[in-house]
Amino acid sequence: MKNKFTAIMVLTVSLTMLLMLVCGSAQGKTGTHFPSKDITFLIGNAPGGANDLTARALIPAMEKALGRNVIPVNLEGANGAVAAIKMARDPADGHEILIHSQSLIMMQYTGQPDVNIKNYQPIIEVAEDIPAVTVAADAKWKDLKEFISYARSNPRKVKVATSGAGSVWHIAGVKLEKATGVQFSFIPYQGGGAKSSVAVASHEVDATTTSAAEVKPLVDSGKLKVLAVLSDERHPLYPNIPTAKELGIDVSYPVWRGIFCRKGAPAEAVKALHDAIKAAIESEGYRKFMETSGFPIKYRGTEEFTKMVQQEDEFHKALLTELGLKISDPR
Amino acid sequence: MANLLGLYTSGLGLVFKPDVILFTFAGTFLGIIIGALPGLTAVMGVAILIPLTYGLSAEVALMALLGVYCGAVYGGSISATLLSIPGTPAAVMTTMDAHPMAKKGEAGRALGLATVCSFIGGALSVIALSVSAPLIANFALKFTSIELFSIAIFGLSIMAYVAPGSSVLKAFVSGIFGLLIATIGLDPMSAYPRFTFGRPELITGVEFISAMIGLFGLGEALSQVEARAVVAEVQTALGRIIPRWDDMKRIIGTMLRSTVIGTIIGAIPGTGATIASIVSYGQEKRISKHPERFGTGCPEGIAASETANNACTGGAMIPLLSLGIPGDSVTALLVGAFMIHGLRPGPLLFTERPDLVSAIFLGMFVANVFMLILGLGGARLFAMILKIPKDLLNTLVIALCFVGSYAIRNSVFDMEVMLAFGALGYAFRKAGIPDAPLVLALILGPMMESNLRRTLALCDGNVVTFLQAFTQHPIAGVTMLATVALLLSPLIIRRRSTAPQRIRAEDRISGKG
After folding, report:
1. What is the CATH number of the domain that holds A203?
2. Which of A212, A247, A282 is the last residue of a domain?
3. How many CB pairs below 8 A link A and B?
4. Is the pLDDT of residue B302 over 70?
């Protein structure tokens, strides 16, 4: 009886070791080839939001290019910080990617010290979201110049809706202030850009510098009008609206959306991901989706995007300090 | 005229196709199940299913999602009735009366009333939607920060009245606890984290659904485990499901008023079915001749909550279709669903795709009919829950509490939140403190705070300007007057009443009806 038991034990152990050996060698073989398993696509926001929809629009073409499944995982919480923190703790093998925007940089300084931009490898920029200086359709200002000169002679009287202190749309308004030397009174509205545009349409505030895509429905309803967009080029949704730069006001603040992986991922994994996502950006499905949603497609390669993220980090750190919104340092 | 009629008939061809009907049915069915499971809400149901509708045509996808929406708002009442756990936050007020009624052995009556009221609320609100969406686009824009603040205050003032069988003082203890917990998270004006103890998960505040599941679900299960040895078995009789005619006659007024309240609140951006049912319940209790019966299992309570939360579904679609702005969090997700199919909800949809707008009206109505059929037909099946032995049921409920709170955002932290609130709920039950006011405060606290502080900022921090603002905003002014009346009415009643009546009045205040 005892012998039989020992025999079974030996057999089990040796079989397990054999299996491990086989697995090990199998992994060794495919390890040089990325991806060796399915890709997890982390989305730090609820399904249906701009980040979520953008990520999901990329996935079909990415899967084709990579030959693996790309599984979207919505990990909500703390405006995307929870997902970012998870990725920084997971293995740096490139099999987990994250979609994020400027807010990944800003949250380091606004109370999320566990997020450190140095833990993330920028892969590619996929889209932009452009702030639009928007007022009520029946507002007295005909164009951006009139609006600014009114704001200049009435400091702190013009109320501008943002989606929260230290949000990207607030920073867009601050950049407009700085470029023109005026002072607005910023009023925060939690819970997305639609709230800000509703506040303008109901005449609770005078203007907003929220997303051009977000104000579109109320512009179509004849409740709002866009005075200018804060980007280098005109916006596809508003071909007749000038950029601020065209009007001689030097301010541009495109909110970028890009894909990151954990820092330290093998170079060939970053390259494979970049190529797959680039193919996805160029796909018909992505182009069509971006057209309806009103986000201009914007491509920046790994090198260019990495450099920009670094510059953006320095810029936002300085600006948030100046505004008194910087309350933490990344650790 | 022909054009106007076309808005209602041009979608017939789109809706009455076998696949569209099938998906509407499947959506409604799934929605009811999602709603009935604690932790899975209408928002989550729609969110999970949006990616699955990528491959479908626009009308099939939208009908399926609208079915989920209508079904889930209703489904919450099933677990509220049978388990005393609101399946969705919108069913919080349903729990107040539906569960006591079920405990009295009238589970069938409670389920039947909830189903019929949900149907009436949902169906009438769809009619309101189809009539008003093309006409009154501006309505949603009348509600600015000061109006939302007034609605939140009105909702909070109900706090003292929603708790049956306990004193006003204890209700306030519970409510103020809730208000304190509601301050956790980012400061609404300066975005500075408050009471987060360095936990990134707390930046956006305590996850409300985990708190609710812990408080109602785990708290109730724990105290049942304890009480089991003492209390006799709860009656498991189901009784008649289809509501009796005299029940219907009794609640017809409540249903109509609650439909109006639900539709209006649904149409206000930034509110939703939960707030609609709270306000409606409070309103009905305020005008009722027998407010002391609320919370003990009275049909009016079920009707007020269930009619209003389902009336919200049609209401929330009004600003979405007329202005392109979502009325609540589910319709906010629907914007994404529209966009996937290359559509932009808003006024242009009426000229670009009138057939689709028409199909939405018709499809939502059809979903409500399916909801009625499934609800009444399935009541016997749902009520099998009551036949499960109590020990097994409590274990299942506790397991469901864990799964549900984890599922909200795949977070172990939310399970910890649920556990903490479960302990709190148990302690509250021991001390005889009602838990409903805490939940109300958790929902309404952030809404009250951010809108109050925003209004103050808009008034440059000047209190005089702030008070004057109420005269310039009639909706806010009237709501505030109603709140004051609600808070003072017990005092006035007490002063006017003679000695024997005084006892009754005091009973009413303490809710010992």
Report:
1. 3.40.190.10
2. A247
3. 147
4. yes
